[in-house]
Amino acid sequence: MSYYFTILSPTDTPIFNIAFGTSKSGGDGIARFRFPDTAQYMNQFIIHSSLDIVEETQWTNGGMYLKHIDTYPPAAAYISAFLTPSGARFLLLHQPPQLPASNSSSLGASSLLGASGSTTRASSSSIAANPTSPQTEEAVRQFMNEIYESYVKTAMSPFYKQGMEIRSPVFRTKVTAAGKKWL
Amino acid sequence: MSATKASRIGEEIWKTRIDKVNAELVTLTYGTIVAQLCQDYDSNYQDVNKQLDKMGYNIGMRLIEDFLAKSGVGRCANFRETADMIAKVGFKIFLNVAPTVTNWSSDNNQFSLIFDENPLADFVELPDDGRAQDELWFSNILCGVLRGSLEMVQMQIEAHFVSDVLRGDDTTEMRVSLVRYIEDEMPPEEE
């Protein structure tokens, strides 16, 4: 599973981005998205396009963690969201790994995208393979909560201004660690 | 007076005679002051350090009175005793930390205070403009406080930070050196 995590300020400015891969079930923590390296901006497109749904959901749901709220089937991407009371949005895009194509290897890359939609819902309950399972929702919740804690500390720094890009290396390390721990 | 006795006194006063305030209030207020100074001085960190020291000096000159009233301690016999009093009583009752006194110079006129924790610097990350890490002493107000308060009890000292965990150093260390004892001087004759 590959992840792309973004924090958006209340005015929709991205203030933090990070891409990482799963460290569970033997993952090496390196993101491998299905887009070619030249098309990494797709992650940002997909994440930002889910904002409408976030805004629709945020008043109907009492909690801060909105779970998995959006999917983008062409890329088999799933979006989970977490809202802070001050209006910052934490968005996590997860994309399950391309399964080893046993039957479609001859059909080329285009069919893989189509096929993956059905295969990801397959039986496995491991976090890496099934983005909508309760286990995954729970892992993402833990991840979000941990980030929220670090985010609060970072935002408390007197030299940080609301809505400013988070450049703190400490924060980045903590996000990476949380990703490694929960996802 | 031994260092352990000083610790005991500090502990006792802290428990019984000190009004406590919320730590975040102190941290955020101090942080805001420093951030505002950085802005006012256009990130000229030398000037910010100087200004913090001056603010501390003015605090120290008044704080010493409060310190003596609360602690009821008498005159220190030598500079070593003064150091323990600062670390174990002074810092303890005002900031609830007790820095370690160490690295004495051979003439007993210089020592270091090592801060294991620094309530002023919680949450703080220095600006990453490439200079703050080398130039700004975030907690410099403490140097001024020591300078101001000791001056009021006839000791001229010089204090500065030599390392700070905020800058990525392993410890936060302040170097304090005694310049001289201020003798009572007759006012210049008026004729």
From TrEMBL, chain A:
<dbReference type="InterPro" id="IPR011012">
    <property type="entry name" value="Longin-like_dom_sf"/>
</dbReference>
<dbReference type="InterPro" id="IPR006722">
    <property type="entry name" value="Sedlin"/>
</dbReference>
<protein>
    <recommendedName>
        <fullName>Trafficking protein particle complex subunit 2</fullName>
    </recommendedName>
</protein>
<dbReference type="GO" id="GO:0005737">
    <property type="term" value="C:cytoplasm"/>
</dbReference>
<dbReference type="Pfam" id="PF04628">
    <property type="entry name" value="Sedlin_N"/>
</dbReference>
<dbReference type="GO" id="GO:0006888">
    <property type="term" value="P:endoplasmic reticulum to Golgi vesicle-mediated transport"/>
</dbReference>
UniProtKB/TrEMBL annotation, chain B:
<dbReference type="Pfam" id="PF04051">
    <property type="entry name" value="TRAPP"/>
</dbReference>
<dbReference type="GO" id="GO:0005783">
    <property type="term" value="C:endoplasmic reticulum"/>
</dbReference>
<dbReference type="GO" id="GO:0016236">
    <property type="term" value="P:macroautophagy"/>
</dbReference>
<keyword id="KW-0256">Endoplasmic reticulum</keyword>
<dbReference type="GO" id="GO:0030008">
    <property type="term" value="C:TRAPP complex"/>
</dbReference>
<keyword id="KW-0931">ER-Golgi transport</keyword>
<dbReference type="InterPro" id="IPR024096">
    <property type="entry name" value="NO_sig/Golgi_transp_ligand-bd"/>
</dbReference>
<protein>
    <recommendedName>
        <fullName>Trafficking protein particle complex subunit BET3</fullName>
    </recommendedName>
</protein>
<dbReference type="InterPro" id="IPR016721">
    <property type="entry name" value="Bet3"/>
</dbReference>
<dbReference type="InterPro" id="IPR007194">
    <property type="entry name" value="TRAPP_component"/>
</dbReference>
<comment type="similarity">
    <text>Belongs to the TRAPP small subunits family. BET3 subfamily.</text>
</comment>
<keyword id="KW-0333">Golgi apparatus</keyword>
<dbReference type="GO" id="GO:0048193">
    <property type="term" value="P:Golgi vesicle transport"/>
</dbReference>
<keyword id="KW-0813">Transport</keyword>
<dbReference type="GO" id="GO:0005794">
    <property type="term" value="C:Golgi apparatus"/>
</dbReference>
